[in-house]
Amino acid sequence: MPAADVLLSWFDRTARDLPWRDPDCSGWGVLVSEIMLQQTPVSRVEPIWREWLARWPVPSALAASSQGEVVRAWGKLGYPRRALRLHEAAGVIAAEHGDVVPADIDTLLGLPGIGAYTARAVAAFAYGQRCPVVDTNVRRVVARAVHGAGDAGPPATTRDMADVAKLLPEQDAVAAKYSAALMELGALVCTARNPQCADCPVYDTCAWQLAGRPAYTGPVKAVQKFAGTDRQVRGRLLDVLRGATGPVTRGQLDAAWSEAGQRDRCLDSLLVDGLVEQTDSGLFALPGEH
DNA sequence: CATACGTGGTC
DNA sequence: TGACCAAGTAT
Fold this sequence. Notes:
By secondary structure, this protein is mainly α. Among the domains are: about 25-125, Hypothetical protein, domain 2 (Endonuclease III, domain 1, Orthogonal Bundle), CATH 1.10.340; about 230-285, Arc Repressor Mutant, subunit A (Orthogonal Bundle). It contains 15 helices and two strands. It has helices at about 5-15, 25-35, 40-55, 60-65, 65-75, 80-95, 105-110, 115-125, 135-145, 155-165, 170-190, 205-210, 230-245, 250-255, 260-275; strands at about 275-280, 285. A hairpin with a 5-residue loop joins β1 and β2 (about 285). It is globular and about 65 Å long.
C-alpha cells in the first residue's frame, strides 16, 4: 500500500459526511461515536448519536443521568453493556479530567469500555495524533493491499499495529487522516464480501490484486450463532424493561422467553452485569429506575 | 487465545 | 433462507 497521496485524495473526494467527522466535533462526540460504532453499523448509530450529543453535550451531563436512562437511550444499538461503561467513563472524565476526554492513549486505555482500537481512534480522530488505528476494516485492507491475502487472519494486536505504523505518513494530522481513509476504504470499497476493486484508488499497487486475488486461506472464522442463545434471551428481557415505564413483575418477563431455566439464568446474568436491578418489593427495573 | 456479548441488514 | 457481517472489549 504505497502512495499515501492517492488514498488521501480519494478520501478528500469521497468521504462520507458523518457528524463526528465535523472539525468542530468535540472529543466527547468522537468518543461517543467510537463506542457506539463498536460492532454496530454507521446507519444505525448516526440517529442515536445525534440524540445523545443533543441531550448530553458533555460527559458530566451523561454522568448526571441514571444508568437506566442511559440504557434506555441506547435503544437497540446492541451490546448494552457499552452504554453502562460509557456512563461510567463519563463520570471519570467529569470528575478527574475536567470534563474533557483525555488525549493520552494510556489514560484512555484506563477508562472502562475503551480498548486498543478506541483509545487510538480517539487520539487520532479527536486530537490529530499519529498512532496506528486498527479496526477490522484496516486489518482487511492491510491483509489485501500489503500482504496479498484474501482477508485478515485472526487478530494479533501487536503485529497488526506494527503493520499499520509502517504505513503512516510522518505528519501527525496527515497520519490521522490516513487512518480514517484506510477505514473508509475498508468500509466502502475493500469490503469483506464483494469488494469493489474497480473503484479502488490503490488498485494498481494492491498486492492482492497483483497476485490475482487469491482466496483467503487462513483459519476458518467461528460463526456467531444468535437464535436461541443467551444473547437473544438477554436482549428480549431487556427489551421488555425498555418498553416499560417502571418496574415489571417476573411474570411480565416470563413472556420474553418460554424456557424457564435459560430465562432465569439470563435474568441473573443481567443483574450481575448491572443492566437490571431488583426492587425491594421483588420487581425488576432498569438500573436506577425505581 | 477463545468466547460471550445484541441487533438488524444483506446476498 | 440462513449464514455472514458490522469503527471491539473484557475475561
